[in-house]
Structures are given as structure tokens and as C-alpha cells.
Input
Amino acid sequence: LAKTTQPISMDSYEGQEVNITCSHNNIATNDYITWYQQFPSQGPRFIIQGYKTKVTNEVASLFIPADRKSSTLSLPRVSLSDTAVYYCLVLGGSQGNLIFGKGTKLSVKP
Amino acid sequence: NAGVTQTPKFRILKIGQSMTLQCTQDMNHNYMYWYRQDPGMGLKLIYYSVGAGITDKGEVPNGYNVSRSTTEDFPLRLELAAPSQTSVYFCASSQSPPPPGAGNTIYFGEGSWLTVV
Output
């Protein structure tokens, strides 16, 4: 599992766009970049996954540059309910030692 | 479709007692995991299993034991409960390696809240 680095915490206000960047310098050719969201007292849930360029779904967008050594999760117009921890994972091959790390704690204020 | 089921949801243990957290999945996933999460902290991997009969240590295995006699079940055993084991425990499963571009491949249970007093 490729090592990832992301900010420990971020603050935002309702209605703003939030961008969380994750670096993964050792990503392998068959790896996919995957983001999970965790609300307090719940298990993580899948948000979005991408391989290259841009992926968009109803929740977020994921931007991946050509070298794939980093990625940016973009949350448009956040609300208080987006307050959560966001985890960046690089998944592809064997997922035995599946370490989530600390994630990025996003706090959205009114 | 049940997914990953954990029991019990809540439990209070006295110091030195033993207990088993149960986890079962019905998706025929080969990989299963146990995590603990302390308040305000990230997920810490305790143990994982890549298939029936195979288990391995994660980041924080001390004080815990696991077994994987079937594909479906992955119980976590606490032998001598200590206050430091007060935490929320999450079981998860996945199919590994995941099909390319499969999207979500890791499924979590709802968590088990354990308090050791």
C-alpha cells in the first residue's frame, strides 16, 4: 500500500469550496486513488475513486495530475454536515496491511 | 444484504475480564480487518486476515488475538481487558486485489463501543 500524506486538519465555512490534497509519491501503475469519509461514531464510507485526470460524482470531484503523485479532493459548497474526517488511500494490489492513517479532519463552521 | 455485522454494539468490561467481539460478512470477501479508534483519533489497524486460516498483526496488536476459521467470521478476542482498550472497534472486509476501477471495495461494520472500568 503506497504511503500517503495529507493535512491533519482544515477549517472552512458553509458555502465555500474545500480542497484537500494528498501526496502519494510511490503510487504504482495499477493503483487507484480512493477517498473515504468518516462521521463521528460511524465507520468510514466511500466517497470517490479515480485513476487519472478528473472524476466527479454527486458528492465530490477528484483531480489527479498526469504524474499521479498527488490528488485533490474537492467538496463544492460545503455545509455543516460535511464536517468529518477524510482519508486518502491508494488501493490496487494486495490490501493486507490496510492502514488508514490520521486522515484530514475538516471542520465546517456556520 | 447484511454486509459486515458486528456484535455486541456496546459493552462494559471490568479490568481483567475477557470477551470476544464478533464480526461476520456475507460478501465472500477474502480480506478482513479489525480497527480501533480512540476519541478524536484516526483508525488503528489491530489485526488483519487475507483468508481463512491466515492472520497477521497490524499497527497495535498487543492485548488482542484473532482467528479466521471460516471466510465469513473474524472474531477479535480481548484476554485481559485494560482501561487502555476502551475504544470503538470497527470490523471491515474487502475483496483483494480489487477489480480495477471497482469503486468502493472496503466495507465497514457499524462499530462496537467498549468501555473497560
Observations:
- DSSP finds no helices and eleven strands in chain B.
- The first strand of chain B starts at residue 4 and ends at 7.
